[in-house]
Amino acid sequence: MKNTVGRPKKGDKKTAISVKLPPYLIEWMDRQPESRPVLIETALCSWYQIPEHVKAPGKEKPGQKS
Predict the structure, then answer these.
(1) Which secondary-structure segment (H or E) carries 29?
(2) Do 50 and 44 touch, CB atoms closer than 8 A?
(3) Domains of the chain by residue range
(4) What CA dihedral angle connects 55, 66, 60 and 63, to 10 degrees?
(5) Which of 51, 52, 26, 60 shows the shortest CA–CA distance to 40?
(6) What is the pLDDT of residues 4-52, one digit of tens each?
(7) How many Cβ atoms sit within 10 Å of the Cβ of residue 24?
(8) Is 56 left (phi over 0), alpha (psi -120 to 50) or beta?
(9) Are 60 and 52 in contact (CB under 8 A)?
C-alpha cells in the first residue's frame, strides 16, 4: 500500500508547457484583456472544434453521448 500525504491530485489539472511563437503573436496576445493561456485554449478549441466531452472528461451534460 502506498502511503501518501496531502490532498489527492486532480486528474484534470492543467500542465505548463513552453511554446515558441513569433514576436507579433506575443505582442498581439499581450494587448488582449485575456491571458495568453486563455487565448491559446480558446483559439485551439474553436479552430479544431474540440467537443465539450473531450475538454472536460467525465463532466458530460445529461443526455449527451460520448
Answers:
(1) helix 23-31
(2) yes
(3) 30-54
(4) 150
(5) 26
(6) 677 777 767 888 999 999 999 999 999 999 999 999 999 999 999 999 8
(7) 8
(8) beta
(9) yes
